[in-house]
Amino acid sequence: MGFNQYPPRLSLIREGIRATHFLKGDSEKVLSKRQTIRLWTCHCAPVAQSHNYPSPLLPLPQAAGIMKREKKSAFTLAEVLITLGIIGVVAAMTMPSLITNYQKKETLSKLKKIYSIFSQVVKQAELNEGESGYWDFTLSSKDFYTKYLKQYLNVANEYIDKPLPKDMDYYTLNGGINNPAGGHEAVANPKVFLNDGTFFTMLGPLGNSYSIVVNLNGYSHPNRWGRDIFAFSIVQGKGFVPYGLYTGLVSPDTGEVIGSFGDSMSRDEITGTGNSRACNKEKDGIWCAALIMFDGWEIKDDYPW
Fold first, then answer.
1. Which residues of 293-304 are buried (b: 16+ CB within 10 A; e: fewer)?
2. Rg, Å, the chain Cα set
3. DSSP letter string over the chain?
4. How do beta strands 249-250 and 191-194 pair?
5. Would you state the pLDDT for residue 304?
6. Are 247 and 204 in contact (CB under 8 A)?
């Protein structure tokens, strides 16, 4: 006996109970023979594969609604909060160190750059004006800057014989203020902004030298000696050197040479407590450029950062 185009009507019940389907014939009469199938433990249900043939048993767990829901594991709120707390503690412990290391590297990069710029400026000036040993170190800082330096620098703005738009307070390592750039103290001295944002002021003449005080980031903070403010000198016959080497200020009261550690650099001298310019937290910190250079252009762990 064949089967017509009508698919079987299915009555699906749970596992372990018999399901019966009736196949209709051409005469629309119910067949006398009832075919019975049993749903097996695989949770299968009969599905018509074609119009003319009974279907095989196929897995339909969702349709039967008999599969047990799997239990999915997840973090509890308490576990998430504890994890976030641990991450926060670790971040709080490591971030300051990471920020400090980044700032030190940035400072070294800028300091090396400005040292290279002025060293090249002096060499270029020597090509046109002769060796620095024969330069005129009796000129005012304004005239010295104009004659020997200005044409070789990429100048953005300069303030000569006039104050800055606003003063800069330069803080020392021991908490004081040493402000050679402020308009109220150095109106006649050149105060110059370079194209890269570096600012410097020029002081002198100071015997056989002029001082160049560099602020690596202009008006931006911290404006502190040894952090973003460093001192150098242009010394007759010696070129561009860290402040304190070969020369210093002579006290009008005692005749003592202030700010000089002699003709060679000694770390104990640069970091000691015998001179107010020393690079330690009890002093001004004006010799900190010399310390960094002495240490091979490194900011070491004992540096008064």
1. bbeeeebeeebb
2. 43
3. ----SSPPB-----TTSEEEEB-B-TTSPBPSSPEEEE--TTTEEE--SSSSSPPPEEE-HHHHT-SPPPPPP---HHHHHHHHHHHHHHHHHHHHHHHHHHHHHHHHHHHHHHHHHHHHHHHHHHHHH--GGGS-TTS-HHHHIIIIIGGGS-EEEEESSS--SS----B-TTS-B--SS-TTT-SSS-EEEETTS-EEEEE---SSEEEEEEETTTT-S--BBTTTEEEEEEETTTEEEETTBS--EEPTTT--EES--BSS--HHHHHSSSSTT-SSTTS--TTHHHHHHHTTS---TTS--
4. unpaired
5. 96
6. no
Q: Break the chain into its structural domains and give their ranges.
A: 1-70, 109-294
Nearest to 207 by CA among 179, 239, 264, 246: 246
Q: With cut-offs at 50, 70 and 90, classify the pLDDT of residue 33.
A: very low
What tokens were used for 99? 């920020």
Q: Assess whether pLDDT exceeds 70 at residue 59.
A: no
Other CB atoms within a 10 A radius of the CB of residue 170 amount to 23
Q: How many CB atoms lie within 10 A of CB 119?
A: 14
pLDDT tens track for 172-185? 999 998 876 554 45
pTM over 0.85: no
Q: Among candidates 129, 127, 134, 184, which has minimal Cα distance to 159?
A: 184
Average pLDDT for 65-69: 53
Place of tokens 């107010």: 276
| pLDDT reading at 116 higher than 70 | yes
